[in-house]
């Protein structure tokens, strides 16, 4: 199971994934998330998963309905994916790996 923490959120590749590139919902959440990360102090509570557009391998399926899962997934290039020895991808569509 991938831990839901600041380190993984910062390293996550979802923020630049082609699947989310044209998603209005994901882009709004990404801006909010980046702002939260920039202002987050060590030991602060993590944002609610419903308010971010990243680390789906940890939090599960995307709640944004306008992502384009026909685009190429880049999970295989993600350090969080590699470090946790994940095996699938498209966590935004399929949910977290069990």
Question: Briefly, what is this?
Answer:
This protein has helices at 6-11, 24-39, 56-59, 79-83, 91-94. The protein is an all-alpha fold and 98 residues long.
Written description of the protein model:
- There is one protein chain.
- This protein has 98 residues and is mainly alpha-helical.
- The protein has one domain (6-94).
- The protein has 5 helices and no strands.
- The chain has helices at residues 6-11, 24-39, 56-59, 79-83, 91-94.
- 29% of the residues are buried.
- The model has no long low-confidence stretch (mean pLDDT 92).
Please tally the helical runs, counting DSSP H or I stretches of 4 or more residues: 5
What's the gyration radius in Å?
A: 12 Å
Major sheet characteristics: none
Percentage beta strand: under 5%
Average pLDDT confidence is: 92
**Cα separation of the termini:** 7 Å
Total E-strand runs: 0
Topology pattern, helix = H, strand = E: HHHHH
Query: SS-based structural class?
Result: mainly alpha
Indicate the percent of residues in helices.
Answer: 25-40%
The domain count comes to 1
Low-confidence stretches: none
Shape: globular
